[in-house]
Amino acid sequence: MLKTLLILTLAGALLGVIAASYIVPPALSWYSEPGGLPKGAQIQALVQIPEVIRYSTSKLLRGQTIGGAIGAVLGLVLGAVLAYKGRTRSPSAPPSAT
Predict the structure, then answer these.
(1) How many domains does the structure of the chain reveal?
(2) Mean pLDDT, the chain, integer
(3) Do 66 and 24 contact (CB within 8 A), yes or no?
């Protein structure tokens, strides 16, 4: 039972990290996109590339950590529910009197 619970928790964490890897980059690009500019207008700006890279990777890693934690909790809950249902379905046989 404990082995199944651990496997489901780790699988949930892995799925959470994978989901965050697909969700966070589009969210980051949407969040940092300037609004209110007419179509085709160019933005005049100087950018500190190392700072931008540091910001985006830190946000991606933070999103993956949060996704992994959420996935682990969901896997733990799923494992607990499955373990509880498995115990209630299989009643133990009374010991036979010999």
Answers:
(1) 1
(2) 80
(3) no
